[in-house]
Amino acid sequence: MGRIQALPLSVVNRIAAGEVVERPASVVKELLENALDAQPGRVDVTVEQGGIALIRVVDDGCGIEAEDLPLAVSPHATSKLRVAEDLDQIATLGFRGEALASIAEVSRLVIRTRTADGTGSRLEVDGGINRGVIPEGCSPGTAVEVHQLFGKIPARRAFLRTPATEWSHAAEAFVRTALAHPETGFSLTHNRRQVHDLPATDEWRQRIAGIFGRQLADRLLEATETDGDVTVTALIGRPEDDMASGRLQHFFVGKRPFRDRSILHAVQEGYRGRLLSGRQPIVFLRLEVPPLSVDVNVHPAKMEVRFRDPGRLHRLVLSTIRRALLGLEGPTALRPPGTTSLPVDDEPATAERAAAGLAAAEAIWQQQVAPTARAKEAGATAAAAGNSQADVTVAPAWEQAEAAQQAALPLEQPAEPPQERAFQLHNRYLVVETESGIEVIDQHALHERVLYEQLRERVAAGNLEVQALLVPERVELTPAEFELVTGHLTALGEAGVRVESFGGSTVVVQAKPALVGRTPAAEIIREVIDRLAALDAAGGDRRLVVEEVLHSLSCRAAIKAGNPLSQPEIDTLVADRHRYPGARHCPHGRPTSLMLSRQELDRQFRRT
Ligand code: ADP
Ligand code: MG
Fold first, then answer.
1. Is 118 near ligand 1, meaning CB less than 6 Å away?
2. 449: nearest Cα among 279, 588, 276
3. Is 565 in the pocket of ligand 1 (CB under 6 A)?
4. Where are the alpha helices (DSSP H) in 283-337?
5. What confidence tens digit (pLDDT) does each residue in 149-162 have?
């Protein structure tokens, strides 16, 4: 007998299952896609133990004929594609005909279904073994249950993470799908608790609000642009609502979530100059393109797609993002005092304040090089051009006018450090005469560092002053975010942020460190979530978590670029940099100051 043999079908299926079914979240995704292809009015998802014990997806769509049921769970059987040419014009989410077969191979699958004029039937497949179809009455539509995923395949089961982690991935899959289909109603229930109830809507912002909360949705900027048969719709975050990760970036082509480097690049390009390097905007982006101009048949589970004209899409996305942000630049973007920003607080609007300031800050960090090298470069430019290519751009007048409202820098008793002469430039840089030359300081970066060191010192000494909020602040979260926050209440408390769960997936912040002043709790919580999400993936111990919370606090509470400072505030901040050894770099590792030595000045002016 030859050595090469065709694999038995069950082995083929199991290999395919490995590609399609990686974890509970992939089952949620596949079942949701099937449900949506059946044109339902609503879809209800139930998950138990993160989806490891049970995933149930119920739709009120077209249902499956009893005679078709066995085919639905056999590989490469689909109702959505007949001939190869159909592959060029895929309008449905599924088309490979392998999802149900793969899932049935690695779990106990039960399907109950009924077409509008049928009577209903039930099919069960256990670990790939078909138990047959029996008549069973049910309401029109289809209910698919997946029990004990990988229950009989220890090798695969071993790769599953904790139910909490699997749950957060499953919830993420749900969220992505629900975002893509606002016109369908959805619900999500985990361990008997309903975590999402999303009524059908024809407004994307409404769906975003249903998932991420009104606070976030109401602040999104919106723009739509069309070029021929391509339309881009963007709902994007204000620059000052930036995040530490790209967690809140959702891209869709038609109804399909996707990731694409070039599109992401276009978005970042659109924000260029408005975000500090390393910070990510909130982005909800939808592309409408003709079916022939996108190939979705690239990978069974990954979210890659291939566009026929990527250059054109890039340009269109870029201009849509710019248009959405445009409103921020003119004086019309000024909001009347009293309207609230993302975090609900008694503080006056902080909306546009930071936008232009960040632009200037970004200018510097973009060409970020070692501080000394930069100083040299600055000197060289000055010598060559006769005027320093200022790193600082002039703040628009409207911004200066608005800047006056920022909370004051907490005054600390300056200790013995040398009294240096310092002044503020463009409301964002401090220029200091030092013994050896001059130093230019980024006020935000330095204050962030100082705050961080102060917080850390106090936490370590056990004398962090915590301020109970007069009105505890509620923060709406997604289920996954809620899970993350409530999983770290002790660490949060240790860092001075007292949080309690409030029902649904809302938390209430009861207290925060006095040092962070009036920084809205919602801002702090979002920053914390952002950082913990990244940390959790790497498996974080409590000390690391406390650190991240302290980083979040200092990042959010630090004075921003664009804030005018009083002379005592300037002096305090400048003196503080001597007290904290790490103050030369902000906690992100960006430099907080640039030096230009007198020697260098002398050399440049040919005095030596
Ligand atoms: P695909 O979605 O790629 O066609 P699947 O294995 O996911 O492959 O599903 C196989 C077939 O089962 C589908 O083509 C469809 O006809 C049928 N089916 C699966 N789920 C549903 C559902 N919720 N409602 C109606 N039909 C369904
Ligand atoms: Mg499918």
1. no
2. 588
3. no
4. 310-326
5. 999 888 888 888 88
